[in-house]
Design brief:
Chains A, B, C: Pfam families: PhoU_div. Chains A, B, C: InterPro entries: PhoU-like_sf, Put_Phosphate_transp_reg, UPF0111_domain. Chains A, B, C: This is Phosphate transport regulator. 3 copies of one chain form a homotrimer. Helix content of chain A is 82%, strand content 0%. The first copy, chain A, has 207 residues and is an all-alpha fold. Chain A has one domain: Methane Monooxygenase Hydroxylase, Chain G, domain 1 (Up-down Bundle). Chain A is globular. Chains in contact: A-B, A-C, B-C. At the B-C interface, α5 and α6 of B face α2, α3 and α6 of C.
Amino acid sequence: MFSLTPKEDKFFEFFVETANIAYKASNMLVEFLKDLDNSEENLKKLKEVEHEGDRKQHQILEQLNKTFITPFDREDIYIIAKDMDDIIDLIESAASRFVMLNVSKVTKEAIILGDMIAASCKEIITLMEELKNMKTSKYLNKKIIEINRIEEEGDRVSRRAIGDLFRSNIEVIEVIKWREIYQYLEDTLDACEDIANVIEGVVMKNA
Amino acid sequence: MFSLTPKEDKFFEFFVETANIAYKASNMLVEFLKDLDNSEENLKKLKEVEHEGDRKQHQILEQLNKTFITPFDREDIYIIAKDMDDIIDLIESAASRFVMLNVSKVTKEAIILGDMIAASCKEIITLMEELKNMKTSKYLNKKIIEINRIEEEGDRVSRRAIGDLFRSNIEVIEVIKWREIYQYLEDTLDACEDIANVIEGVVMKNA
Amino acid sequence: MFSLTPKEDKFFEFFVETANIAYKASNMLVEFLKDLDNSEENLKKLKEVEHEGDRKQHQILEQLNKTFITPFDREDIYIIAKDMDDIIDLIESAASRFVMLNVSKVTKEAIILGDMIAASCKEIITLMEELKNMKTSKYLNKKIIEINRIEEEGDRVSRRAIGDLFRSNIEVIEVIKWREIYQYLEDTLDACEDIANVIEGVVMKNA
């Protein structure tokens, strides 16, 4: 039988909490993209969520350093905390490009990629909720496959969007701006996939 | 004396197999660059090899998770599998830029960098073949130095190519496209060097 | 009581030495930015310091592989050596952009970012000097916070600089060049923050 002490349980709780912060940030990104008229204000709110993520990461690392026996590899707990923080940072960075580069009109593909980031972050919540049942859960593997599928689909969307960008007749300076925005959106989906892959490794090791 | 059980031997076999997949991909890149008229079709074939690499990486990780005693640090086996996968992914990404950015003419420098990637991947095969003899092999160190040399030379080639690009009178949009292509080619050589450095560490630890 | 054998002490010495090399490189970058007329020659000198850093990293890894008991986690020693090397490499890469992209006039913001890199590298020296007293040092935490503060401030400076760049009327080709230079300067400050975060983890674990 597999049983957890309250202390070990703490990590699973923290991971669910971080996943919820990432999901909140991803929803704010979705809204951000639809409301570029208020991008500066909306970015400030997103920055607050980013700081919330920083504090949660710090909490996990502190817990890690005072816990002698961890529910799975220390190193993996450390990597999950770091990778979750990367997702949230990248969401903020993607949004900040619109302010920095003074982009006031969104594209269809950016909206699609934003929705995919939110979809991926939602799956990550379930991953984290199921993690404590990793020995028996039937959902984990499905969710991991789904996050990988979203990333591959996102790759296709952004490659097509970038291709269209270079084929279009818009000004070069706009091409550069959008090239950068798509890169950040794609990197965010990659970071979601990284989490899925780390969790896959943890599940395999503890099977 | 140093002796391996069949199970441990498996990892060395897998690494040689992944190195062969990377080398195959690098040769396809070399051909790809010489046949941009058929870039879409050629890219599809390269994507298949990328998936072959994915499956091999998965096989290594599964083997890792069911093997209790590994021939060297688990973490290093994990990193080698991941870094080999990165090389193959980057080769595909480099090729995909030509399709995505609608680039139909190659440059001399891209050809040179493609050849260097293939040369580096060839050295990696020998690295992997010699890895099981790491305590006695005289080749390993030479090969590691050679891969590092290729990366440094590649850095010079791509810096010069990018410099020429910005000094030329070609359209800005073309400068952007080629800046991106050179970056991917350079990143691929960096990924080859990463593998050489990880192997160097493994050899040092087990000397 | 906490006491170190001469061998263990060696790592702390090496880290101080690498930090001094990084600080030297950062000061050369500061000078480099003020003397772009001699950028090719100055870059050569910076490359020599980069090689000095490579040799020091190699020395640390060799020491690591012949030391059975390390003063703290082997993995962290490895990461610190690697991250310090990244800082020095990025400083050289940032400078090399000016030569590669044929940029002969500096901006106010590049100067500011250069100064911030030097300030951050100076703090890293103190971090490394205090590391051997990690159980009692009162400075470590302050220095870590300061390096994080510099990185956040640098992020604001570079985001503003890039924003201004895209809003200005300079030629697009110049926008591309400067976008790339600012990226390297920002990445260097990020690499300094990475070191601070790794040290923070080491201190927490050994508290």
